Amino acid sequence: MTSDPSIWTPEPPATAEPPSGAVPRALMVQHWTDIVFCHWRYDPADVQALLPAGIEVDTFDGSAWVGLIPFHMDGLGVPGWAPLPYVGSFPEVNVRTYVRAGDRRGVWFMSLDIDRWLPALVARLGYRIPYCVGDVRHVRIGDRVLSSVDRRWPRVGGATAALSVAVGDPVADDDLSRFLTARWGLLARPFRGRPVWAPVEHPAWPLRSAEASAIDAGVVVAAGLPAPVGEPHLLYSSGVPVRIGTPRLLGAS
Question: What phi, psi does 80 have (nearest 5°)?
Fold first, then answer.
């Protein structure tokens, strides 16, 4: 653990729009569709204990926040080219939290479950983030979104997840929803002692309220966290187009 999370001073909430020129040259483009933001409060110390040196948990209202985030990945490809065949569209369910490394703030992925081997292996090697492979489903039927995970690789006690959510009315963003959704980069495991950073750019999320009728958060526990407690903070978005920049090491001269 790098420091005591209880004495950190929260920074101003993330803005709904990305900083100008956040990704001047995209390495990949994609569209995140029918995304559900399902978050729970956590003791910052529980989250910090799972982070490597140089990565510090980010907090809001005194808590770390851990998300179970299902969505459908569409149009994955290289700018200027058609989406990749077969691997360009698939469901994903990830477990994430929010972190800092120096002056960078971003998403930290604890796991990402998909049903495609090739993008999972490429992401593990290129971005150093923990993609997993298994039976993953995500579909919207009317006003309900259904998601599930049955992880097959790497085998982690048969990790599972399930989420059934009813989509509600449009809502305005607030400081918490911006903290949870408006993130302009991802941080990944350090390489040669330096964290890996990749910038992310997308429009502001069109947000709606959501209500869950069933949640299995087994993949959260499989990540090494205590089982979530209490009612989750829930939001839904129809999605946004996304540009992801080239990963690089922080702290380079």
Answer: 85, -5
pTM over 0.85: yes
In angstroms, the CA 36 to CA 54 distance is 29
The yes-or-no verdict on residue 5 having pLDDT over 70 is no
Nearest CA-CA partner of 123 in 247, 253, 251? 247
Which DSSP category does 60 fall into?
Answer: B
- What whole-number distance in Å separates Cα of residue 77 and Cα of residue 97? 26
- 57 vs 47: CA distance, rounded Å: 7
CB contact at 8 A, 223 and 111:
yes
> Domain 27-246, what architecture?
Beta Barrel (2.40)
Residue 4 has pLDDT above 70, yes or no: no
Domain ranges in the chain?
A: 27-246
